[in-house]
User: What shape does this take?
Amino acid sequence: MSAPIEIRRFRKRYKNATVEHGRLTFEGRITFLLGDNGSGKTTLLKAMAGLIHFEGTISGCENAVYIPEIPALPEGLRVKSYLHLLGEISGYEKARLEGLLGRFHLKKKRDVLLKDLSKGMRQKVNLVQGLLLPRSVYLIDEPASGLDAETKAALSRFIAESDARFVCATHSPETFASLNGQCVRL
Assistant: This one.
């Protein structure tokens, strides 16, 4: 296992609130961030991915990707076109994409416009786009949101079989209890 993810003297100021954490250490391969709404789970994930400015230091998150809770998908593209476009821009392996489409039961939806997908199907596309490239750290915001039981189980299996590190912000860690991840309450 690689070095732990360490967060020190973290502070992110917003107009009406400030998120602060003195020191957090994520030692395991799988960590669940728990906390009330507004406790800073999403803020912390975005900072770990390098998507927002903050005060303090974060180490151990090199080569990380952030997978948001609410996907921003271009509505005019079809599932296949969108994922292939992302993959070609990023240099993906086609076999990995095919495997993810199968794992998350999206093969029959390849030719559907993204705007015509249900919330759960959009969430599946969101997961696939985030997992498309092999990374050392995956930062997933509310990974179970909008997913059916079968897809939650498929995601749990993917996480269990992967060598990567996962940090997931969630209100429902029991969904992934079989993974025996470290729970950190913010």
In short: The first strand starts at residue 5 and ends at 13. Helices lie at 41-48, 79-90, 94-103, 119-131, 149-161. The chain has two domains: 5-70+133-185, 79-122.
